[in-house]
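Q: For a teaching handout, I want to show students what a protein-ligand complex looks like in token form. Below are the inputs, and the small molecule is zinc ion. Please produce the holo structure.
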Amino acid sequence: MKTLLKNGISFDPQTYQVKPIHILIEDDEIINVSETQMEKLLTDEVVYDLKGNLVIPGLLDCHTHLSQSFGRGIYDNLHLTQWLVTMSNKFNLTEEESYQATLLGCVEALKSGTTTVAEMASAGPHLDACIQAIADSGLRADVCTAIGDYQEGENPPPDMTTDQVLDVMRNMHKHWHGMYDGRITVRVSPVGLPACTEELIRGSRDLANELGIGIHTHCSEGETETQDAYTRFGCSEVEALEKFGLLGPDCQLVHDIWLTEHDKQLIAEYDCSVVTCPSTNTKITDGMPPMPDLYKMGVNIAIGCDGEASSGTYDMLQEARLVSLLGKVHTMEADVFPAETVYKMMTVNGRKSIGFDARVGEIKPGFKADLTIIQYPAPHLIDERRLMSNLIFSATGTDVLSVFVDGKPLMWQRELLHLDEQKIMADILQTMRNADHLLI
Ligand SMILES: [Zn+2]
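A: Here is the structure, written as tokens, with zinc ion included.
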């Protein structure tokens, strides 16, 4: 089936100036991109008139815990260390709640222009319910699970051995990798060194190599937790990950705040991708992410919204803005992280960090038709010569009009076409009113 998106505007990938765009899609793939009007080719071709609105690649959110949408607003004023203990003790969802909470997160992400998530599902026994919700939402997803085999700080001890944890990851790959025409892929995910043994880190690398998939892990997020590595392993967290063989170009390291200069060099040397989550880092006082240093060293930086129980949002445009602002104030250099740089972080850099055979994050023939349409003009998005800057510093997810994944319109003119949003909201509101067990 062919689909034509006509009469849009988009950014030139070199100059970032806007130009007209018409996009022809066959099934799930972009087959032609043109500045001039394309003739209607076939009688069964479906045509969407974009009426001058702005088309950008679907955004890649490279670190989420979507089921945490039910924790939004409950744990606002806790520091990371206390937040981790509280989440471990209180944030326990039933299977139905896990499905609903994840679907709610997906709806918010989709309506904010995200088309791909790197989801670290934190649902324990209800992992399948979380992944099913993502699959049903229509999002593209690289999924893994937050799983460890060592007691972190004052958290409750894990109830699984190293081998059992690795079996969960292996089974997850067996059941989900490549499902939904390849829209769902799986990654190996020791949750983070503070909650893992050396054996699990080494086993995770072996499993990733055996299955030919990447690795996703939290890294150097909290000051106290990062310091614990010196007590346990006699070196920094990143140095331990290197010693245990985890680092490599297929490795996504999430947060990366409490880094030594040697840690930064190792991350650059091993060509790891870093995923920065600025709302979480500021809201639960993780610390100031040293992204400008890593950027200057050539590290690939992508952006994640993290879980709503710590960040409060799945809006990638808000996160990108915050990445830029934090970089500026951290270095006191006003030209750090201009709009074009953070735009790349949530598109092409995200693609590089996730992989997906390099076929998302750009609008060109041969790529997946994952597209986000932004309303233009709007009071804060008028001057077309400065539209990139205005998109990053003035727009939010509510400016997103329409979203396509795999060439299918999941949202058109703010209406979800494949989900009954009103019923979903009504059912979830009812569930949340009865979810007092999550409260502190
Ligand atoms: Zn996280």
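A: Two things your students might notice: The chain is about 35% helix and 20% strand. The first strand starts at residue 2 and ends at 11.
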